[in-house]
Design brief:
The complex is a heterodimer. Helices cover about 40% and strands about 15% of the residues of chain A. Chain A is an alpha+beta fold. Chain A folds into 2 domains: about 150 residues, Beta Polymerase, domain 2, CATH 3.30.460; about 300 residues, Cytochrome-c3 Hydrogenase, chain B (Orthogonal Bundle), CATH 1.10.645. Chain A is globular, with a radius of gyration of 24 Å. The two termini of chain A are about 45 Å apart. By secondary structure, chain B is mostly helical. The chains are: A alpha+beta, B mainly alpha. Chains A and B meet through strand 8, helix 9, helix 10, helix 12 and helix 20 of A and helix 5, helix 10, helix 12 and helix 13 of B.
Chain lengths: ~575, ~325
């Protein structure tokens, strides 16, 4: 007992050791300080079940192909590893559970019964690594097409088309792919008819005006009432995690922009903070505040798109044009600062790409001064409209408990009364210096989810104003050796700095071996990049935990018994982009 | 001697109706653009009016395709039905004194009958397409139109009572002193709502409901057949506007004091334009209710209003008769 008390980092861990015996757990130090414990497969279900009351959310579940990894001293032998990352909001604590598997026996018991959102994560692990989960009801491919051969994130799976046989889409192939897309209700345990009538199965998407990209959902309908539904994702999958293993730490930044493509530099922030932790970089004050300002500008841009499309999806035609006009004003500012618009890829390891341009304050001030009045105007036009309220109040309701069970984060969670906002609870990158509120509400319906995002726009304006008023002076890049590209001032004056610049730009920086992930409050919920460095110029494994992925998984639960127009309102209120789901 | 007047007028309406609907597609988009802080079609010709011709050329040159899984005959017939029915409806509209194809003593009923026939177009189009979205659209339109037909007819009975005739000429004449939009305000309200529902335009475009049913009943239609549906919709919009003007806003009569400033036909045209612009504004401003909400609005709000209007109008008329 005495030993347990010294080793355990928390009371839950202490109880865990008491319950299962300390010898069962091997811990692995991680650069981000998150407690990481290895256990054996036999104990998985028991340990997770024990931990369930202490951790409200299965934050992430993913696998790692360990077969070519060199720096793993002290970790148990494994060809593949499955990681369960748990989050306790009450104690503000994380725990990672890792299970090592041998290549010859890639099999684990399913944990759907413990955390329901494990369902899609387990399917993803099967799809990408070929790990089977015993007891899983629908262990089908989720991101790749059902006809795909091999498991894409394994190290021996080719990453480029040129490494594979030429792709041909002959008539048989077309027929095969078409057939694979057919929705079969039996596969999902759905009845096709009751005693007196048949159900209609409607294929909504992947091409449909209101699914915000290429989202497909198969509906079981009784008249226009939704009996059940099966979301189908993967049409926007671009292998972002696989690409990360080929790109250098630096050249991967533009790819992150395109994960949540409405979030712009917000994605850079999630990625770069993890890299900086691995490298041990302390970012200068000015860079931090510039980053926050840009991230909040993008939060507003993203929420404006949400606002417009949400209102449009319940059939109001005009407001979306006003919101897009505002977004255009924002892009004007972003363009002046970064040179880019939707995807500036402007943050750098150790800072930002450039200093702010002359006169940036005026542009930003003009925008934040004008915006609140326009928001009031939109409120009258859209949110106060009776028909819009009738369409969205009391629709798509879920409770806090359900939200946590399904891994919902962001405004979707805060609409249920939970005030978890990473910027407040774990202030990252300088958020602790800002004065802003986290809006919450209690009904958890479509209307409130929209209302919260609109309030968040106002809070973001408040944060941006503080950035403008108090922008610190100083360097916009760290002097750390891994900063990429390194500050160039002295490169032409001494050979050491020139070589350093040359290597960091041509090869890319070498990041020390280790693992880290940092949660950020992205536009749509909690986003993080779990990065594993094997001590090289590129990432060994990049796991992108996006908020939209679990949000979609929950749709069937909240749309049962409602009508098609309600489903459209729910989809609109979730605020997802498919690139963020499929990666 | 044979009276060529009605024949010429019919031809004029045929040409004018189609041209008017075509211009409306452009006008509506420009107007929406104006209200939505954007330009709308402004590239071809002065003010973009050439867009009308460009759209027509595009639609005419499109492949005239019938899906292999559709019911071919019905699929082709459906879009014509709405155009024919709406065109027929214009036969009884009095554009100006003596300027009417035919003045029948049941003009109002004829109009109601023709708009009802237009339902078949949507219904059959949805059914014949053999597409689930189209089917849902057809289903919605069937119940929506059947319900709203009821109040549409009933809402006009107040007008009929007050003018004592179903003839549209008599109804216009009965508004010489006071337009019915004042005495029959409730009737007007219900008729406008039912009119939007009948011509299934936003906010009551549930059979189409782009965001839910992609394009509803005309999902499978393209080229000229699609254009026919659009033509029918805009003809319907014009017809409803003409009827609103005729029944509630004194038809071709200008306001008594300044009526002699302009010829009756121009007065009629101005009023119709006003009503059409009002419909466009509604489309720009209001979200779409859910299908069941539309139904309950109809049966729980519109029907009682109509009945109250009917009883009160009848009561007042009887009381006035007694008093005389």
């Amino acid at each position: 007992m005495q030993a347990a008390a010294t080793r355990a980092a928390s009371t839950v861990e202490e109880r865990l050791y008491r319950e299962f015996g300390e010898a069962l757990f091997v811990d692995q130090p991680c650069a981000d300080g998150v407690r990481t414990l290895w256990i054996s497969r036999d104990n998985l279900t028991a340990v997770l079940t024990f931990l369930r009351p202490h951790f409200c959310m299965l934050y992430d579940l993913f696998a790692i192909d360990e077969r070519t990894r060199e720096h793993r001293a002290g970790q148990p032998a494994a060809d593949f590893t499955v990681v369960y990352q748990l989050l306790s909001m009450r104690r503000n604590e994380d725990l990672r559970i890792k299970i090592g598997l041998a290549e010859s026996d890639l099999n684990l018991p399913t944990s759907i019964a413990i955390w329901p959102n494990a369902n899609w994560y387990e399917r993803e692990a099967w799809d990408m690594f070929g790990i089977t989960f015993e007891g899983h009801p629908n262990l089908y491919r989720i991101l790749l097409p059902p006809t795909w051969e091999g498991h894409a994130l394994r190290k021996d799976h080719p990453a480029r088309a040129t490494e594979m046989a030429p792709f041909e889409m002959g008539p048989e192939r077309v027929a095969r792919e078409q057939e694979a897309l057919r929705f079969r209700p039996e596969e999902w345990g759905m009845q096709t008819a009751t005693e007196d009538h048949e159900y209609m199965f409607l294929n909504l998407g992947p091409n449909h005006p209101s699914v915000h990209g290429v989202f497909r959902i198969a509906l079981q309908l009784d008249g226009e009432v939704i009996v059940d539904s099966v979301p189908d994702i993967g049409y926007h999958h671009r292998g972002a995690e696989k690409m990360a293993e080929r790109q250098t730490w630096h050249t991967y930044i533009p790819y992150t922009d395109r994960i949540d493509y409405l979030g712009g530099v917000m994605n850079n922030l999630a990625y770069i903070q993890s890299v900086e932790i691995l490298a041990g970089i302390e970012v200068p004050e000015r860079a931090k505040i510039i980053r926050i300002m840009l991230a909040e500008l993008f939060r507003i841009a993203s929420h404006l798109v949400f606002y417009g499309t949400f209102v449009q999806d319940v059939g109001q035609m005009s407001p979306v044009f006003y919101m897009f006009a505002d977004r255009e004003r924002l892009f004007g500012i972003i363009e002046a600062i970064t040179g880019g618009r939707m995807h500036p890829a402007w943050f750098r390891i150790g800072g930002v790409s450039q200093d702010l341009p002359n006169g940036w304050q005026h542009m930003v001030r003009e925008f934040i001064d004008g915006m609140p009045a326009r928001l009031d105007h939109y409120d009258k036009m859209a949110m106060q409209n009776k028909i819009l309220k009738d369409r969205t109040v009391g629709i798509g309701v879920y409770t806090e408990r359900e939200a946590l069970d399904w891994g919902i984060t962001g405004p979707g969670l805060r609409a249920t009364g939970n005030d978890w906002d990473v910027r407040k609870k774990r202030p990252y990158g300088g958020y602790d210096q800002f004065d802003f509120e986290v809006p919450t509400s209690n009904n958890g319906d479509c209307y409130e989810r929209a209302e919260l995002r609109i309030e968040e726009i106002r809070q973001s304006l408040k944060i941006i104003r503080q950035c403008v008023d108090n922008m610190p002076s100083g360097p916009y890049k760290s002097a750390h050796a891994a900063t990429t590209p390194p500050p160039k001032e002295r490169t032409m004056e001494d050979i050491e700095t020139l070589i350093h610049h040359f290597l960091n730009v041509s090869w890319g920086p070498v990041i020390p071996a280790g693992e880290a992930s940092v949660m950020i409050e992205a536009t749509k919920g909690i986003n993080s990049y779990h990065l594993i460095s094997d001590g090289g110029t590129n990432s060994y494994r990049t796991r992108i935990r996006t908020p939209s992925f679990p949000h979609l998984q929950q749709i069937p639960l909240i749309s049962r018994g409602l009508m098609i127009p309600d489903l459209i309102a729910i989809i609109a209120s979730i605020d997802f982009v498919m690139a963020d789901v499929d990666r | 001697m044979f009276d060529w007047g009605p024949i010429l007028l019919a031809l004029a309406i045929l040409v004018g109706g189609v041209a008017g609907a075509a211009v409306l597609t452009w006008w509506e988009r420009r107007l929406l653009g104006f209200w939505q802080d954007r330009h709308g079609p402004n590239r071809i010709g002065p003010w973009g009016i050439g867009q009308v011709a460009a759209d027509m050329i595009k639609l005419l040159l499109k492949d005239d395709w019938v899906p292999p899984f559709a019911d071919r005959m019905v699929f082709i017939f459906a879009p014509t039905a709405i155009v024919v029915a709406m065109m027929m409806g214009f036969a009884v509209v009095p554009f100006a004194p003596g300027m009417q194809i035919i003045d029948v003593n049941i003009g109002l009923l004829f109009f109601l009958g023709m708009t009802s026939l237009a339902v078949y177009s949507v219904l059959l189009g949805g059914l014949a397409s053999n597409n689930k979205y189209a089917l849902l659209g057809g289903l919605r339109s069937a119940s929506q139109m059947v319900s709203y037909e009821v109040f549409m007819g009933l809402s006009l009975m107040g007008v009929v009572m007050m003018s004592g005739s179903f003839s549209l000429v008599d109804i216009v004449a009965a508004q010489r002193d006071v337009w019915f939009c004042f005495s029959q305000a409730l009737g007007l309200l219900v008729f406008v709502v039912a009119g939007i529902a009948e011509s299934h335009r936003l906010p009551f475009d549930l059979p189409e409901a782009e965001h839910e049913l992609t394009a509803g009943f005309h999902t499978e239609y393209g080229g000229m057949k699609f254009a026919m549906f659009m033509l029918g919709e805009y003809l319907g919009l014009m017809l409803i506007s003409c009827m609103i003007v005729t029944l509630f806003f004194g038809g071709w009569m200008g306001p008594a004091a300044i009526a002699h400033w302009l010829p009756p036909l121009v007065w009629f045209g101005i009023k119709v334009c006003f009503v059409i612009n009002f419909f466009v504004l509604l489309r720009a401003a209001i979200p779409r209710p859910r299908y069941d909400q539309l139904m309950s609005l109809g049966w729980k709000v519109m029907l009682p209003i109509t009945l109250v209007n009917l009883v009160v109008t009848g009561g007042i008329l009887l009381w006035l008769e007694e008093a005389v």
